[in-house]
Write a structure and sequence with these properties.
The complex is a heterodimer. Chain A is about 80% helix and about 0% strand. Chain A has 14 helices and no strands. Chain A has a single domain, classed as MetI-like fold (Orthogonal Bundle), CATH 1.10.3720.10. By secondary structure, chain B is mostly helical. Chain B folds into 2 domains: about 55 residues, no CATH class; about 200 residues, MetI-like (MetI-like fold). Chain B has 12 helices and no strands. The longest helix of chain B is centred in the N-terminal third of the chain and has 44 residues. Chain B is globular and about 70 Å long. Classes of the chains: A mainly alpha, B mainly alpha. At the A-B interface, helix 2, helix 4, helix 5, helix 6 and helix 7 of A face helix 1, helix 2, helix 4, helix 5 and helix 6 of B. Chain A: InterPro entries: MetI-like, MetI-like_sf. Chain A: It comes from Actinomadura soli. Chain A: This is ABC transporter permease. Chain A: Keywords: Cell membrane, Membrane, Transmembrane, Transmembrane helix, Transport.
Chain lengths: ~290, ~280
């Protein structure tokens, strides 16, 4: 009898599965993630530090001023885009959260959601149409008399910044909105009733509450920007100094997979450092939430 | 507004200072308001104008892109539907996305159960690995997969591509289904079991059934991700595999086919409908 009870208790009704059942359930995931996520990075490292020069491949990369420049341009451009995206995203999300006008809410929500419905290449196509030599922007500006002749907009750093901002902004607004939802708006009234101006209330009451969420979004946006491929390659043009273009050139034109792998590893290092910083500053849960 | 009413109650001896403050504050607030309005307007214009342009241009009858269009009509739509290249690419993308999103679910749904409802060790690490395709810099991930595909000569291998896309859609299953499952109390299954249900019956009848809307939403997200995927395909697809995003990529590189405006408009409408459906489904749990 006693033995029976003990057995029942051990197999007892628990709301969680045993580790073994869990392993069975997660087995397909382990195989898929092992083959298509973990192993490719092992192979990437082997390629980066393999032929022709082993670890000297990294030295080769930094020997080339052009390659060094791409890394710098990529990091800097991503930083510019991140600042614009988080700042504009913070304002838009705050408007969504606080506006009482249905029209404002609808206009902002539509502006945020519609780009999300368009695939990444589509967005770049649209920007090419807009920024072409005889594209929409140049036509409009010339016919308004702002400029005399069409400007070179496409295949510039400006085009890349604009394109990347366009891709990232909607993705940033949604998690930021989710952050704001957790902030009690009565706090603003409370601060104002004690004599604070609206700006002061936002600065001293709302901003500290929103700051961890904003930082988390900054980290996520930066990391995604660093890895952009389509925008630099298509809007920046073939010769633009972006690491993505360099990688494409190494693989598709120069057939130097090792150099492409080194560049990829360097991007991973940059992203990894930024994520580590984010983990230390705001923790894992907030970063996860900033993913949307 | 609030500041004005407040200072009107201020004690008289501090009045001059308060008045000066209020004026200063009001100017500041006004400046901040103007800045806020400017940022909002610019951001909305920046987000909205490109979309309006592409929709307007899609109804132009011209053979080349021109803005504003001189003649209106459905020419772009007609020539898109009449073009084998575009239709083939679209069908291929559709097939790829349908299958790979289904595989994402097959892998992801049991995994979410294991990650949220089992005493498996290292769950945090496994979850992080599953989500990593979202944060790993895209190019680096593409090059990593490229090295794998080159090593095993998988380029232009459809099965490998489908599986890659399935893993690419996996983070959405983990995120959407995971957050839905975290909101379901685990004990309801036990309640069903006290009422006589077996463990599998309780799992399917209680938890899985309540998760159905979230499963639908995850499928839609995984589908859209695969359908729009344009980076990996460049590195893994080889010359023979032309999905819709790849076809558009190649087109943007060489010239601009105005038919794409029609495709973009149609897809935006389609994604809008399906995406809103996913949004509603997510709210259900």
């Amino acid at each position: 009898m006693l033995r029976m009870t003990r057995r029942t208790r051990r197999r007892g009704w628990q709301s969680t599965f045993s580790g073994l059942t869990g392993l069975g359930l997660i087995a397909p995931f382990l195989v898929a993630a092992g083959v298509f996520i973990v192993y490719p990075f092992v192979e990437l490292l082997r390629t980066a530090f393999g032929e022709p020069n082993g670890f000297g491949n990294v030295g080769d990369f930094f020997q080339s001023p052009a390659a060094r420049r791409t890394l710098w341009t990529t990091c800097l451009t991503s930083l510019i885009v991140t600042v614009i995206v988080v700042a504009a995203g913070a304002v838009l999300a705050w408007s969504l959260r606080t506006t009482k006008s249905r029209l404002t809410r609808m206009v902002i929500a539509l502006a945020v959601f519609m780009p999300l419905w368009m695939g990444a290449v589509m967005k770049i196509y649209v920007f090419t149409v807009l920024l072409e030599r005889f594209g929409v922007v140049n036509r409009t500006l010339t016919s308004l008399g702002v400029i005399d002749e069409p400007m070179q907009l496409l295949r510039t750093q400006f085009a890349v910044v604009a394109g990347m901002t366009y891709q990232m902004l909607p993705y940033a607004v949604l998690p930021l909105y989710a952050v704001y939802v957790t902030i009690d708006l009565n706090l603003i009234q409370a601060a104002e009733s004690m004599g604070a101006s609206r700006v002061r209330a936002l600065r001293d009451v709302v901003a500290p509450l929103a700051l961890p969420g904003l930082l988390a979004s900054t980290v996520i946006v930066y990391v995604i920007c660093v890895g952009y491929y389509l925008t630099p390659v298509l809007l920046g043009g073939a010769t633009a100094p972006f690491t993505a273009s360099l990688i494409a050139d190494d693989i598709f034109n120069l057939f130097e997979p090792a150099q492409a792998a080194v560049a990829s590893v360097l991007l991973l290092v940059v992203a990894g450092l930024v994520i580590l910083g984010g983990l230390r500053l705001v923790g894992r849960e907030r970063l996860r939430r900033a993913l949307g | 507004m609030t500041t004005e009413t407040l200072t009107s109650h201020a004690p008289p001896e501090t009045a001059p200072r308060a008045v000066r403050d209020t004026a200063g504050r009001r100017a500041l607030t006004r400046g901040a308001k103007a800045a806020d309005l400017l940022v909002r307007a610019l951001a909305v214009l920046f987000l909205g104008v490109p979309i309006l342009c592409v929709v307007v241009l899609s109804f132009s009858n011209a053979e080349v892109l021109q803005f504003p269009p001189e003649e209106w009509g459905l020419r772009q739509y007609r020539s898109f539907f009449g073009s084998d290249t575009w239709i083939d690419a679209m069908v291929l993308s559709f097939k790829l996305a349908t299958v790979s999103a289904a595989i994402s679910l097959l892998i992801g749904v049991p995994a979410v159960f294991a990650l949220h409802r089992s005493r498996l060790p290292l769950k945090g690490l496994l979850q992080a690995i599953g989500l990593s395709p979202l944060v790993i810099p895209g190019v680096a991930y593409a090059v990593a997969l490229y090295t794998l595909f080159v090593q095993f000569r998988l380029t232009s291998n459809m099965a490998a591509l489908v599986l890659t896309y399935a893993v690419h859609g996996l983070p959405f299953v983990l995120l959407i289904l995971g957050s839905a499952m975290a909101r379901l109390p685990a004990e309801t299954e036990l309640v069903a079991m006290t009422l006589g249900a077996s463990r599998p019956r309780a799992m399917v009848g209680i938890t899985l059934r309540q998760l159905l809307p979230a499963i639908g939403a995850s499928y839609i997200f995984a589908f859209i991700t695969s359908f729009d995927e344009a980076v990996l395909i460049n590195f893994l697809g080889g010359p023979g595999t032309v999905t819709l995003p790849k076809a558009i990529f190649d087109n943007v590189k060489t010239g601009l086919d105005p038919n794409i405006t029609a495709i973009a408009t149609l897809l935006m409408a389609g994604t809008g409908v399906v995406g809103s459906l996913a949004f509603l489904l997510r709210r259900k749990v």
